[in-house]
Amino acid sequence: MISRRDILSSAALLGGAVLAAPVKRADAALPPGLSQPTATPRGPLPYTPVITPNGGSLPWIMDGNVKVFHLVAEEVKREFAPGMIVNAWGYNGLTPGPTIEAVEGDRVRIFLTNRLPERTSAHWHGIILPNGMDGVAGLLQPHIEPGETYVYEFVVRKPGTFMYHPHSDEMVQMALGMMGFFIVHPRVHERVDRDFAIMLMEWAIAPGTARPNPAVMTDFNIFTFNSRVWPGTAPLVVKKNDRVRIRLGNLSMDNHPIHIHGHNFEITGTDGGRIRESARWPETTVDVPVGTTRDIEFLADNPGDWPFHCHKSHHTMNAMSHEIPNLIGVKQGSVEQKVRKILPGYMAMGENGMGNMMDMGRPKNTLPMMAGDGPFGPIEMGGMFTVIKIREGLTDYSQDPGWYKHPEGTVAHKVDPSKVPPIAPIAMAAPASATATSSAPAAGTPAAGTPAGRASGEPPPPPRR
């Protein structure tokens, strides 16, 4: 039972802790007052802290045997990438809100102060707790009106990757960015060297504006990792042979198949808890459905710069219109010249694809559809895209190691046309109808779909030179 005295005491202690917390600017997107979880109020931690790229963890204090946190729901300005600031809603200056970390068996007390212009609440998604702490306003508690502070208190009994978000006007509040991770570490430590948390989100932000449109149901145009888009997403820096966990959460309106290059991983957890080892299998893509989390783990044994991205191709793009005509293959040369007489600078759209349209001019506060340069030129990506940088002998995770230096002879390269082998003809499969109706051919008779002079089962002849 929480007394008024407990609440006032904890709030005072926590307020002091927040003010006194060291400010370590891990990246430019981290607002003042938040730190990466290397700064903690109580010495060494019994777990590997979670890294929330382009974000941070929520400071806490101990009040007796209770771990005390303080969330503040408020309007925030979030830079999605240089050149685009979004007027969002979130917690403690961030969207997604700061990651809450606790240990299995901890008793947590979480204050929620509402500085929004409308009422709110906090639901602890996936956590097993007393019914009255579940945060569904109207059903399980009153709405938290602007200016009010409520407190939630419960014991976290199950380790895993969970989330928090409102259950008041959630269509608007989640569309504007109100969500965050709630990580419960196991009481018995499991080896993991790098532990990342990435929240998947999609937004409808009309070019030239800054406020997401919560009325949009399906046609989103900005797709983010922790409310950042490529090239604004921080790399995941890893040392060779580190065991890596990446926690993915999805409170958007679509599923997102997240793909890794150069490695296999296993799906080791959901928002229902850990998955038994006997139930795991190797994957390179994990589909993260709406309203769920997925943990993946792998051994980083292949150095390099490895893309990590959503495999829905529109989700690795930035702002673009979805209503433009399809002009790929349409010759527009003469038309383009005529239009330029009226509109100087006009460029025909997509005659030969869109890969060369990185930065063709755009309204203010909007990003190019594809952006970011790599060591070999434009990367032509955007949205849900980042890079896992795996290095041998790494000594400092806080520094971006730069682009990977490939060993000699390990990069694809252009070749002299005279050294290109001839293109072999493709041996087409027999039509299904012919296969189904034909009987076994007589000796020496080619089967249906097999070129004359070659019996079924024989390999195709070498290409003519």
Automatic annotation (TrEMBL):
Superkingdom of the source species: Bacteria
Record carries keyword Signal: yes
SUPFAM superfamilies membership: Cupredoxins
Region feature (Disordered): 430-465
UniProt keyword annotations, A-Z: Copper, Metal-binding, Oxidoreductase, Signal
Range of residues in the leader sequence: 1-20
UniProt xrefs under InterPro entries: Cu-oxidase-like_N, Cu-oxidase_C, Cu-oxidase_fam, Cu_oxidase_Cu_BS, Cupredoxin, TAT_signal
Pfam families referenced in this protein's UniProt entry, alphabetically: Cu-oxidase_2, Cu-oxidase_3
Domain Plastocyanin-like: 78-187, 218-324
Gene3D superfamilies: Cupredoxins - blue copper proteins
Extent of Low complexity compositional bias: 430-457
Protein name: Copper oxidase
Organism for this UniProt entry: Pendulispora albinea
